Amino acid sequence: MVAAAEPAITHPLAPISHRSAVLPALAAFCAVLLASCGGSDNATPASTGTQSPATSTPAPSTATATPGLGSPQFESARALQHDHALSVDIGIRAAGTDGEKRAANYIRDELAKYGYDASLQPFPIQTFVDVKTALDLLSPQQRPVDAAALGGSTSGTIESSLVSAGRGFPQEFPAGTSGSVVLIERGDNTFSEKAANATAAGAAGVIIYNNDSGSFNGQLTGDSRIPAAAVSREDGQALLDLVDAGATTVRLTVDTRTETRDSHNVVAKPPGKQCRLVVGGHYDSVPAGPGANDNASGTATAIEMARAMAADGTLDPVCFVLFGSEELGLLGSDAYVRSLSPDEKAALKAMLNFDMLAVGDAWPLAGSQSVVSIAAQEADRLSIPHSIDYGRFATGGSDHASFINNGIPAMLFNCFCDSNYHSAGDRFEFVREDRLAQAGALGMATAQALLAQ
User: Fold this and answer.
1) Does 227 share its domain with 291?
2) 152 and 104 in one domain?
3) Which of 220, 237, 259 is the last residue of a domain?
4) Could you tell me if residue 371 is inside a domain?
């Protein structure tokens, strides 16, 4: 998937009360700070140790707070702390790993503190294990090249000539592809499409190099018939230069296996109430990095929304569900939806999915029209610049799709605009607290508007 250019957000928002947002205070807050809170994502990330104005200028509320839970308002500083706990204290949370389980326990314990009936929902997954992947340049030079298997790659060893095929479209494969290892640049089409096109052209193996600096973690959507590996942009360009200069030979070794493990959803329900709304997102990360944006940011937003909604002493009929194994293909959300009874499905008005939202300057609202239209109205009311694309990621891409595909309206709060996506560079230092504040404000307002229907 390729992110399109989006309009910039020009200011962060003050926290929104669980029961009411005070628009005059919000407008005054933004007016005072407009000169200092420009939203250019090209700037060097601000220090996350600095308190956001959103945490120091809470919107007033008349609700009675529950002792020990704090104010019934979304507080971005709290959300930032959750992001730190997930992406720094725990770190990589790949599906089926100890890191994912530690994160699940952390989330469950936090939600239980707020008065919800919180539990882990286990489900089996097939995990991909990269036992050993090696790429050796044999000629015209001899040296090893760092490589990692693409998820879903078959095992095998190939020693052959290296040829290049652009971005892996069928017409880009040269005449000498048969029996060769093919070098392809990331971008424009999926990893599986690149691998399938290479296989159709007779290639014996495929190497995909990044289209941005550094290495990356890639996942095929189906099993590959030939070994498939990923390398950094820098190594890929160096290999491409050798291919362009003359005959180049490599040896690609990929040794992989699959294992059955347990992953977990974290399900938090208001005691004695049926869920009318599900709020959540996935908490797992890819193996390549700590996933501070993808998706500790969405998880942190949902956790803080849960606290704010409980802090006034009245638990709304909202379930908070954080999903495991999204990065393997929406497995957690699919398992959760399949676990619902017909009556439970019928009771749900909507699902709000928060995924990859703490980087960028855009709010492209996507999903079911009945939900997106309400979120757009709330965004207008809160002066949050946004765009609408009902079809964007409507049936895939993130966990809201599992609900839509089962007849439950859902939407996605997201900005697919992070250059560190699925890489080791997706770190806490790039998480923007003002983005968490905006996500919480819009999420709280949308949830309350849906419940009021």
Assistant:
1) no
2) no
3) 259
4) yes
Query: Tens digits of per-residue pLDDT, 173-214?
Result: 999 899 999 999 999 898 999 999 999 999 999 999 999 888
Helices (H) and strands (E) in the chain, counts: 12, 14
Beta bridge partners of 267: 119, 321
Whether the model pTM is above 0.70: yes
Q: What is the DSSP string of 361-424?
A: S--EEEE-HHHHHHHHHHHHHTT---EE-TTTTTTSSSTHHHHHTTT--EEEE-----TTTTST
**Pair (132, 92) in one structural domain:** no
Domain residue limits at 40: 23-116+270-451
Residue 411 CB partners (closer than 8 Å, separation 6+): 350, 351, 352, 353, 365, 366, 367, 368, 371, 372, 375, 400
CB 230 within 8 A of CB 207: yes
Residue whose entry in the numeric block shows the structure tokens 């059955």: 260
Can you tell me which residue has the tokens 């605009």?
417
299 in the same domain as 406: yes
Element (H, E) at 257: strand 249-269
Between CA 382 and CA 290 the distance in angstroms is 32
Beta strands 277-282 and 318-323: pairing type? Answer: parallel
